[in-house]
Write a structure and sequence with these properties.
Rna Polymerase Sigma Factor, Chain: A; 7-stranded parallel beta sheet; single chain; 4-stranded mixed beta sheet; alpha/beta; Rossmann fold; globular; binds NADPH dihydro-nicotinamide-adenine-dinucleotide phosphate; about 45% helix; binds magnesium ion
Length: about 375
């Protein structure tokens, strides 16, 4: 039986790579649902190639174009934000690839979990915002949440066969991004064109900026906390510019397991889709005989304050990670539109965390409220 896959965010960096993996394994997977926000042309192309049951175009002004382009097929076309939740509960698929970017991915992922679907999770913001609720629902529904994020996939792989053994700590590796070693006097002048040039990974705009500010690693600390049920003290970040070791787990006897390979998101995507089976592929291999040294250093959290702020949010818990995430989404939006500078992004996140009232154990509704408050506050700082 083929595994039936729904790709939420199919037109993005993760979504298109997930489709590449599926196209290479037509005997194992079939596409059931595809969703995009505004990229109607690519969505239509994908629908014609993979012939899903349904597609969603969130931007309603593109509905007519998608409907017309798919008129000769039997693909069902839905539009609007609510349609994401409507199709997430369809009982015609087995696994959701959660690859929408940002808070916008939370509701549909929760719906998929509530309707018993396995989740291949790329959308880390879902766990940053409401990780306690999301993971609790997954446990209640006995739904596996399999990480796609390369660091978390590495940890997940290191934990296979270790169910009885306690984790002492996990070590998340960070490439350091395009501005590794740079100081504020340099960063004050950088523009989005520089921030979008990641040395090792080719990713969507938001996560590329997050990698440049180290917010991405901060979000990943919070993601790891929920995925692996860790205490904040058990999570360490180390800069490893080559991105060959994708992350590590240290056990109670001091033994450290690492997962390694060339930086290529197709590998963790394929692993999540096929879990627990590994599928042969032709991806390029890491070659030790050609490699130079692997290097490690401490992150510069004074310059890249976002990592320190995320650490603070992780320790405080409650709605603080949600506030951090919301302010950061607005900050990145502002930076990508040349409205604010690189360092202003960190300033905005810090101010939002000071401003928005702390809630120790928020309900889902309170998470939504904190998200909206933090967004409004951050937007008021840049007048958008
Ligand atoms: P992209 O920006 O490349 O793609 C985002 C996808 O989500 C697109 O399909 C986009 O549609 C859709 N989308 C955007 N906004 C909305 C919205 N408001 N509502 C519904 N759909 C929306 O992002 P990435 O693929 O880079 O990242 C996706 C997620 O995966 C992020 O959470 C990221 O942190 C995570 N991730 C990504 C990695 C990578 O290598 N790219 C690595 C690890 C994690 P459209 O194209 O129409 O705009
Ligand atoms: Mg990652």
């Amino acid at each position: 039986m083929k595994k039936r896959i729904a790709i939420f965010g199919s037109t993005g960096s993760i979504g298109t790579q997930a489709l590449d993996v599926i196209a290479s394994n037509p005997d194992k997977f079939e596409v059931e649902i595809l969703t995009a926000h505004s990229n109607d042309k690519l969505l239509v192309q994908q629908a014609k190639k993979f012939n899903p049951n349904a597609v969603v175009i969130v931007n309603e002004s593109k509905y007519a174009a998608v409907k017309e382009a798919l008129a000769s097929t039997d693909v069902k076309v839905f539009a609007g934000e609510n349609a994401l939740e409507e199709v997430a509960v369809f009982d015609t698929y087995d696994m959701m690839v959660a690859a929408i970017v940002g808070f916008a991915g939370l509701k549909s992922t929760l719906k998929a979990i509530e309707s018993g679907k396995a989740i291949a999770l790329a959308n880390k913001e879902t766990l940053v915002v409401a990780g306690d609720i999301v993971m609790q629902r997954a446990v209640e529904k006995r739904v596996p949440v399999i990480p796609v994020d390369s660091e978390h996939s590495a940890i997940f792989q290191c934990l296979i066969g270790e169910t009885r053994n306690k984790i002492e700590k996990v070590v998340l590796t960070a490439s350091g991004g395009p501005f590794l070693g740079k100081k504020p006097n340099f960063l004050v002048n950088v523009k989005k064109e520089h921030a979008l040039q990641h040395p090792n990974w080719n990713m969507g705009a938001k996560i590329s900026v997050d990698s440049a500010t180290l917010m991405n690693k901060g979000l990943e600390m919070i993601e790891a906390r929920w995925l692996f049920n860790l205490h904040p003290e058990q999570i360490q970040v180390i800069v490893h510019p080559q991105s060959i070791i994708h992350s590590m787990v240290q056990f109670e006897d001091g033994s450290i397991k690492a997962q390694m390979g060339l930086p290529d998101m197709k590998l963790p995507i394929q692993y999540a889709l096929a879990f627990p089976v590994r599928i042969p592929n032709a991806f390029p291999r890491y070659d030790f005989s050609r490699s130079s040294s692997l290097h490690f250093e401490q992150p510069d959290i004074k310059t890249f304050r976002n990592l320190a702020l995320a650490g603070e949010a992780l320790h405080k818990g409650g709605n603080m990670p949600c506030v951090l995430n919301a302010a950061n989404e607005i900050a990145v939006y502002g930076f990508l539109r040349n409205r604010i500078g690189f360092l202003d992004m960190m300033e905005m996140v810090e101010r939002a965390m000071e401003k928005i009232p702390y809630i120790e154990k928020p309900s889902l509704e309170e998470y939504f409220e904190s998200d909206a408050e933090a967004r409004n506050f951050a937007a008021s700082l840049i007048h958008i």
